[in-house]
């Protein structure tokens, strides 16, 4: 379902806001400014655990974000600039060991990316052109 920038009364959303799952449990919490997500937002899984956290700048995803697995362990970290993946990104195996890491520039992988097995042993290195 596409979320609207308008509240139930037809006005642009402003201030703190919570989004709910169909069962009424919290799915997201953050703030709106003139109908656009702005500032820190947190997203939750149906089990109540944190799924992702980061910020928006006038409706555009921005800055550092962190995603978590259903068991609460770290799944991925990365940043956005101008609404696109930018900077160093890291993904993690279910056991918490680093899976891969590298840099994004304007939503594209660039430079050297390293991949590791669940024991942390380097298994591949690939260079991407920007």
Task: Describe this structure as you would to a colleague.
The protein is an all-beta fold and 130 residues long. The protein has a domain at 47-128: Histone H3 K4-specific methyltransferase SET7/9 N-terminal domain, CATH 2.20.110.10. 0% of the residues lie in helices and 62% in strands. It has strands spanning 15-20, 26-33, 36-37, 39-44, 50-57, 60-68, 74-81, 84-92, 98-105, 108-116, 122-128. Strands 1, 2, 3, 4, 5, 6, 7, 8, 9, 10 and 11 form an eleven-stranded antiparallel beta sheet that branches. The chain starts with 14 loop residues before the first strand and ends with a strand.
Keywords summarizing the entry:
130 residues; mainly beta; Histone H3 K4-specific methyltransferase SET7/9 N-terminal domain; eleven-stranded antiparallel β-sheet; flat
């Amino acid at each position: 379902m596409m979320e609207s920038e308008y509240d139930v009364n037809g006005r642009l959303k402003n201030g703190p806001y919570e989004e709910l799952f169909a069962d009424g449990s919290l799915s997201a919490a953050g703030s709106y400014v003139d109908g656009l997500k702005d500032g820190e937002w947190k997203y939750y899984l149906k089990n109540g655990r944190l799924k992702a956290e980061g910020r928006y700048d006038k409706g555009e995803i921005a800055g550092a974000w962190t995603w978590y697995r259903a068991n609460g362990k770290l799944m991925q970290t990365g940043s956005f600039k101008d609404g696109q993946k930018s900077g160093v990104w890291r993904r993690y195996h279910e056991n918490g060991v680093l899976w891969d890491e590298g840099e994004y520039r304007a939503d594209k992988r660039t430079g050297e990316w390293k991949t590791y097995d669940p024991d942390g042993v380097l298994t591949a290195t690939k260079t991407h052109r920007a």
